Task: structure prediction
Amino acid sequence: MITYKEAYNSVLKNTTSWGLETVHITASTNRILATDVFADRDFPPFHRATKDGIAINFKAIQKGETTFPIEGITSAGSPQMTLKNTQNCIEIMTGAVLPENTDTVIMYEETEIENGKAFIRKKPEIGQNIHRKGSDEKQGDLLLKAPLKITSAEIGVLASVGISEVSVFKNPKAVIISTGNELVEVNQTPLPHQIRKSNSYSLLALLEAEKIEADLMHLIDEPEIIKKKLSEALKTNDVLLLSGGVSKGKYDYIPQILNELGVEKVFHFVLQQPGKPFWFGIHPTLKTFIFSFPGNPVSTFANYHIYFKDWFAACFGLKKTAFEAILAEDISGSETLTKFIKVKTYFESGQLFAEAIPENGSGDLTSLSRSDGFVKIDPGKGKVLKGTRVSFIPTRKII
Amino acid sequence: MITYKEAYNSVLKNTTSWGLETVHITASTNRILATDVFADRDFPPFHRATKDGIAINFKAIQKGETTFPIEGITSAGSPQMTLKNTQNCIEIMTGAVLPENTDTVIMYEETEIENGKAFIRKKPEIGQNIHRKGSDEKQGDLLLKAPLKITSAEIGVLASVGISEVSVFKNPKAVIISTGNELVEVNQTPLPHQIRKSNSYSLLALLEAEKIEADLMHLIDEPEIIKKKLSEALKTNDVLLLSGGVSKGKYDYIPQILNELGVEKVFHFVLQQPGKPFWFGIHPTLKTFIFSFPGNPVSTFANYHIYFKDWFAACFGLKKTAFEAILAEDISGSETLTKFIKVKTYFESGQLFAEAIPENGSGDLTSLSRSDGFVKIDPGKGKVLKGTRVSFIPTRKII
Result:
C-alpha cells in the first residue's frame, strides 16, 4: 500500500491534454483560456472624457479666460470634433472623444451656462477629467496570460478586444459509473436492504461546475456485464469516474476486469482515511484515465477533491492553489494513515478557522452538507493541537 | 446624494420573491432550496457492514470460539440473511445488511479461510465494523434547512432521500441593457471613436453563475426608442440591469424615461467611488426592479457585487456572509465618499491579505482581471494603515 503523498504525486505525474477548441464568449465562463490575449488597440482607444461638461484649451485659462462661447456638442459614439477657436469650448459628455485642440474637461457642476456661453467658477487643472488614450493598456500589451480560468472579469476583457470566439482547452468526455446491487434510482423506493444512488449525482454536479460533459452509467455485480460495459466506456470516454467495487470483497470485480481490459493500474489502496481503497489506472493506448473511488459517499467526495480536482487543473498547466486553515480545536491524527477530517470553517479577525464536524465514519453522507471541506492531518502526528495551521481542501466555495 | 450605507440599506429593504418551482435534481445546483428536507428513513437504513469479512455472533467469542463454519455469504443489495447456528458465521461484503443473529464483523485480513471454515487471528470487539442503523440520522431528522444554496454535497443528500424533483425558489427573469451610441458588438471592428460592448457580457456571466436567465438588449441614445423598448422590458422581466445613461449628460435619458414609464426612483447618485451615478428604482405595479449602473466597466462590475448580489441573496432570505481582509499596504480613503478599491488577495499564515491593484480610474476594465475583489474604505478615514482589517467584497472565488 502506498502513502497519500506517493499516490498524489503519482496522479499528478500522469496528466494529459485533450487539445483545443473555440467556444462562443457566452459559453466560455469556467473554461480554461488556451491562448494569450493581447490588446488589439490602446485602452482607452482615444482621450476619453470622464465627466459631462465642457472641453476647453488650457491656453485660454492661462490667458485668464473664464467665459467660453459654446461651439458645439459632442457625446459618446460621435467622431472626434475639432475646437475651431481655442477661446471657445465644446460641450462634452462622458465617454466622448476629446475634441482636437482641447486638453481639459470641466464638469457641468463647476460651470454656468447661459446664452450659449459657459462661465467657469474655478480654475481647472490642465488635463483634468480625461482618461488618456493608452493609459490602461497599450496596443499589443498582454492582457490575459493562458492558461487561465475564465470568469466574468476575463469575459469583459475578451469582449473589449473583440474575441467573440474564445480559444479554450478541450475538456475530457467523462462517464460517472456507479456500481453495486444495493443501489436504486433516486425516484424509486428502496427495499429495506437497498439504498438510493447519491455519489453519481454529487459527482455530476461537481463535473458540471467544471463544464465537463458526463454521462451516468450503472453496473450491477455481474462480471460479464461489467466487462462489456466498461470495455465500451473505455473507448468512448477520456475519463471514467467509478464509485464502489474496488475493495476486497468477493464481488469487487472492477480491478480485475479493468486489468483484463488492458488498463494499467498505477496504484490500488492508499494509506489514507477516508478513501483508502482508491484505484487509479490508465489505458495505455486508449489514453483513458480511470479514477475508481471507494463507494462510500464521503470517500468518493473526498477523493474527488483530493485527487481529481488537482489532476484536472494540472492537465491544463494551471497552478495548484494550496490553502491552510487554523484548527479551532485539537484533532487526532493516525500513526499510519493520512487523515482527511471534515470541517466547518469560519472567518475571525481575517483568519480562516476549521472545526471538525462530528462524524460517524465514511458512510455518513449528510455530514458533507454541514462541512466546507477537509483538513489534512499527516500520519504519525498523533494529536494536532488547536491553533495549528493545517492544509485545507475546500469542497464548497468559502469566499 | 445619499451615502453608501443608506443606499445599501435601501436596496436590501426592497426585496421581493418570485415564488417556487420544482427542478430535476441534475438541474438544481446553485439554486436555492425552498423546502426543508427530512430523512425519509434511518441513515443508514440497516446495520451495515463497513468491511469485507465475516459476520459472527459475539456470544461465540465469549465462549472462546475461534473457528467458524461458514453458513453462507451476503453482499450489498441482498435481503437480510439469518445466521442459523450462532457458532457459525456468514461471509459479508461491505455495504451488506448485517445478518440476523450476528452483531460483529471481522475483516478478511484478520481471518484465514479453509475448508469452509473461518479461523480468526485476534479477538474482535463486540459490534466492530458496523455502521449502525440510524446512527447518522433518524427517520424524520431535518437534513437540509431551507433557504440554502444547493451544492454537490446537498445534491448527495437530496438523492439519498429520494428527492429527484427539488423544490427551489424561482429566479427572476432578467434583461441586461447596454446603452450608448459608442458601443459596437464584440465581433465588430470599432471605429476610432467607438468601443466594444463588454459590461453586458460580464453581467451575463455573473447571472449565469446564479442561474438567472437573462436576455441582452441594447439602447441607442434616442428617447423614443428607449421609451418603447424599456416599456416592453419592464413588462416582460422581473429585473432590469442597465449600464450607462444615468449620469448628468445631455443624452442620459434613462432616469427621465423610467420616471415617465411609472418606475419609482428609490435613489440616484451615491456618495461612493466607483459607481456614483447608480440609479435604483421599482415599478410599483409591475414589480420590476431596476438596477441602473453607471456605464464604466469597473462601476458596473463593482455595483453588481456591492448591491445586486446581496439583494438577490436577501430576496431568498439567505444570510449575507461578510468577509474581511487585512491590508498589505496603506490605502487612502476619501473625506466624503465610500471608496471601493480593487485588490489582489493572498493567503499567508492562514490570513487573507489584500493589496491594491494599480489602477487608472473606473474605465480601467483590464484591471478587473487582475483583481479578486474590492475592499471598502469608509468615508472620513483618511489613510487606512497596513495591517488594518477592512471589509472585503470578493468578485471571484478566492477559496
The longest helix of chain B spans residues 297-315.
